[in-house]
User: Fold this.
Amino acid sequence: MIDKTTIIVHSGNMDKLYSALIIGDGALSMGMESTLFFTFWGLERLTKGGLDKGSLSMGEMDMNMFNSRLKQANVATLEKLIQDYKELGGKIIACEMTMEIMGVKKEDLREELIDEYGAIGTYIHEARESKINLFI
Amino acid sequence: MIDKTTIIVHSGNMDKLYSALIIGDGALSMGMESTLFFTFWGLERLTKGGLDKGSLSMGEMDMNMFNSRLKQANVATLEKLIQDYKELGGKIIACEMTMEIMGVKKEDLREELIDEYGAIGTYIHEARESKINLFI
Amino acid sequence: MIDKTTIIVHSGNMDKLYSALIIGDGALSMGMESTLFFTFWGLERLTKGGLDKGSLSMGEMDMNMFNSRLKQANVATLEKLIQDYKELGGKIIACEMTMEIMGVKKEDLREELIDEYGAIGTYIHEARESKINLFI
Assistant:
């Protein structure tokens, strides 16, 4: 077992992307390894321009208010969080099956962020040896 | 600790059922054990005819488009995935408390798929010794 | 690795709160330690009066029907479950970043339930040594 965090990012909601990236960045900062496996709606956030397009998972607050509160609280943008994630050595895997289902091509994706294109076997291989596994 | 994947299937959304079953089948194919614990809306998918009734967790695509893309991408149906899951030796537990809350009787369920009817203690017992734990 | 369950409670949906608390109470009853880390919409359920305000994560049943079925099935209220959780020695952490984003102050929260106010480092520290990790 390796000191690693592996997260399936299934959701495309902005608040859940925040949770996934904050956990990934936090794990890396504390000396753990980290893998994010983007699938389904999560993968759409890795398309060009996709990081800004997520809605919120609950209707209790609207997007404008959420964004202005993030600014007020000095929380980094998703773009900054994902750049930090890469700089800290975090790994990103794009789900090939989702690409086929959603009709997403490699050139639609921000390929500079993606370390590997993989299937379920790739995920199990990562997760099986991880101390922290989450589905978001 | 056993080389096992234990997943709580709380959601009844079709895309999340896909994730749960693909992970379960993948784990089994790679020699792991697997347990799916169906609860709340997830359990409703195990009622007769229930596997076809799930909606999508995000409104970015409608159900007809999703289904036709699954076909185009040659992705197996949920029915095929759950049959494979059983053939590969996967275990399915139905949550008894959910049955009481939702008014679901054993005869409403596809009993041939279910290995055990259990409560939270059954889940903790499985999860506590599993390498991969997820809540979907 | 410690015999502990650590759950991120991101969702504010009532049915997901039920799952989180039933798992936490179950883990404690079986001799495990348990930590619930409340963040985003989940944290709002810890504000005064917040535990009654969650909606359901799926529209297949309305709130009144859900509540009356819970009563019929003799399922404890969320209030009872969280009181049991504390009495059994469960730990609750409130996410400080969420408090800033949502504009939630300590005096808005039910402080008697909260053991610690923490950030992502606090979570990683707990999760890294836990046998069961979930994101709800």
In short: The longest strand of chain A covers residues 2-9. Residues 14-29 of chain A form the longest helix (16 residues). The interface with chain C takes residues 3, 5, 7, 15-16, 18-19, 22-23, 25-27, 29-30, 32, 57-58, 60-61, 66, 69-70, 72-75, 131-136 of chain A (CB under 8 Å).
